Amino acid sequence: MNRKQVVGLLFWSLVAISATQSAKADATAIMVTEFGQADLTVRMNPTGDVDEVWLVTGSCQIAETYLSVQVKDYGYSDLTVKLTSAGDADKQICIKNPEDVPEWMMKMLF
Prior knowledge:
The chain has helices spanning about 5-20, 105-110; strands at about 30-35, 40-45, 50-60, 65-70, 80-85, 90-95. By secondary structure, the protein is an alpha/beta fold. It has one domain (about 5-110). A six-stranded parallel β-barrel has the order 1-4-2-5-3-6. It is globular and about 35 Å long. Keywords: Signal. It comes from Puniceispirillum marinum (strain IMCC1322).
């Protein structure tokens, strides 16, 4: 598989998860970006010490209000977060723009 096929597979996997479990009403909607201005800068850390664990409840593309979050896999950030798709978490989030989620972040969910 080439890189484009892997990204497509990961994207459609997230869409399938979103379709089978709707985003919960108490989830915080976030719009993910890797570059530019954002309300919050978050470094994703799959293991080790983190400030918060976020449970991804699915997609919420029609959310009218959302928090813009710049995601990083290294470097300075406002918050260090571990993503999970099941289990206990500090915060439940839904993703407003799943098509823009970086490949490295998608891998943390599967």
